[in-house]
Design goal:
459 residues, 5-stranded mixed β-sheet, single chain, 30 strands, 3 helices
Length: 459
């Protein structure tokens, strides 16, 4: 065995004495090493120690890549040592262009010098001794790159040579960016409203184009409306059906939104109100459904047997809503329940599809769909359902500016072309179906509901 354990790792100068250390098998203890220089000059080296260690002290008289072969017995090792006439210039990296502070999410150009590095040398810019930010190249003794950070804090930067031997260090303070004021805003939003009250919200939309669409959202999940910008303003009408503090947002983009808090309080005892969608599901209506500006109301029956009893609990009715949802979504392949409201035998009304979105209930779907839960082909709805339908339709007509529910007007249908129909109609008035029961909607008391609602609107 013959091994080198230490030798020069960088060029040596002519006539500079240096040492080569190694170890040999103790079998060779007392023997002299033999050295061959550049394959032609042979000389005797030092004696191997008792423990097998050895050391050669040597110098060269001429520059060049000098080959040295060391041998004892049948063992040999070789190495090449660069020998130079003058010492090479030391490489040095420095930072010269570094901002003292940099806001989060903003970029900055930093740079420095790379003395005695050849052009094209690759460097590494590293943050906090673990994150490689960039790999700039040396050009005319300089380097430069662009950086940015996502989180604030004091960051340690290093510029490092590709072999890791040369490096420089500096620090930069990354600070939290000052929030830009939103370009969308609310104008005097109310602090408090009652459940089910029609609420009109307005605001500004600076530097938006006419027709640009915004999103009005509640509690970061429930889409309320999609108002469009007109002359730097926006306006939306909505309804809040859950009590408590509601976070309302107007959104132009993920980076441009405004927020306000509205306290929704319970209505007076005996006031009609709709059970919110959250009563039976935590999933809102899909936001990508087409928007709706209702032109009328179409009455239906769900045509599902085993409707809840008149004395059913809200929990039982919520379970029924999920049954209807499953049939419409997983059975019919729709995105949501087709109706906007469902009237239970108890007289309670449940919010189904968002009334701001087009339904899937009468083919034309330019109005709101209201369904009585159950089968009413021969059986008539009960008084509680009738009262609830009158209250609901009165509320909806007032909300959407429908002033007459009895006078026929030209109305498009799915199967009969254009017909003269009142603004409140039955499913079978527009589509060839038996829904919502007998001809003229007698089993769902459609004529009575029309007259009662029209009377409420006139009073």
């Amino acid at each position: 065995m013959l091994q080198i354990t230490q030798a020069p790792q960088s060029p040596v100068l002519v006539q500079q004495r240096f040492s080569i250390l190694g170890v040999a098998s103790p079998f060779y203890a007392g023997n002299n090493l033999m050295m061959t220089i550049d394959g032609q000059f042979r000389t005797t080296g030092p004696e191997i120690n008792v423990d097998g260690t050895w050391q050669i002290d040597f110098l060269f008289q001429q520059a060049g890549n000098r080959r040295l072969k060391i041998q004892v017995g049948t063992e040999s090792v070789e190495l090449t040592i660069p020998v130079v006439s003058t010492a090479p210039q030391a490489r040095q990296l420095q930072f010269t262009q570094v901002p003292t502070r940099l806001p989060v999410l903003q970029t900055a150009t930093i740079g420095g010098t790379a003395a005695n590095f050849p052009d094209g040398s690759a460097l590494i810019l590293r943050a906090d001794q673990q994150f490689d930010l960039a790999k700039p190249f040396v050009n005319a003794g300089k380097w430069q790159t662009t950086i940015g950070f996502n989180q604030p804090g004091k960051r340690v930067l290093e510029i490092i040579s590709s072999d890791g031997r040369d490096r420089a260090q500096t620090a930069i303070d990354v600070i939290a960016a000052q929030p830009r004021p939103p370009r969308v805003s609310f104008t005097n939003p109310p602090k408090q409203v009652k459940v089910e009250a029609t609420l009109t919200l307005t605001g500004d939309a600076t530097n938006y184009n006419n027709g640009d669409q915004l999103i009005l959202r509640a509690d970061q999940t429930l889409e309320l409306a999609r108002p469009r910008v007109q002359d730097g303003k926006w306006q939306a009408q909505t309804v809040l059906r859950q009590t408590g503090q509601r976070l309302i947002e107007i959104i132009g983009s993920e980076q441009d939104k405004a927020q306000t808090i509205i306290q929704v309080i319970s209505a007076e005892a005996g006031t009609f109100q709709v059970q919110p969608r959250a009563t039976w599901t935590s999933t809102p209506s899909p936001s990508d459904l087409p928007n709706l500006q209702p032109k009328g109301i179409t009455l239906h029956h769900t045509f599902l047997k085993n409707a809840p009893a008149t004395n059913a609990s809200i929990a039982d009715e919520a379970a029924r809503m999920r049954v209807i949802y499953n049939g419409h979504v997983n059975g019919n392949g729709w995105a949501d329940i087709g109706y906007h409201f469902i009237v239970m035998p108890s007289g309670r009304v449940y919010s189904a599809r968002s009334e701001t979105k087009r339904g899937a209930h009468d083919v034309v779907n330019d109005g709101l769909g209201v369904a009585f839960d159950g089968v009413y082909s021969t059986v008539t709805i009960n008084q509680a359902m009738y009262n609830a339908a009158v209250a609901l339709c009165t509320l909806l007509c007032k909300r959407y500016g429908i002033t007459n529910t009895v006078t026929p007007i030209p109305t498009p249908t799915g199967d009969f072309g254009t017909r003269n129909l009142p603004r409140m109609m039955g499913h079978r008035d527009r589509v060839a179906t038996e829904c919502p029961g007998t001809e003229g909607g007698r089993t769902v008391r459609l004529p009575d509901i029309r007259q009662a609602v029209n009377g409420n609107l006139a009073s």
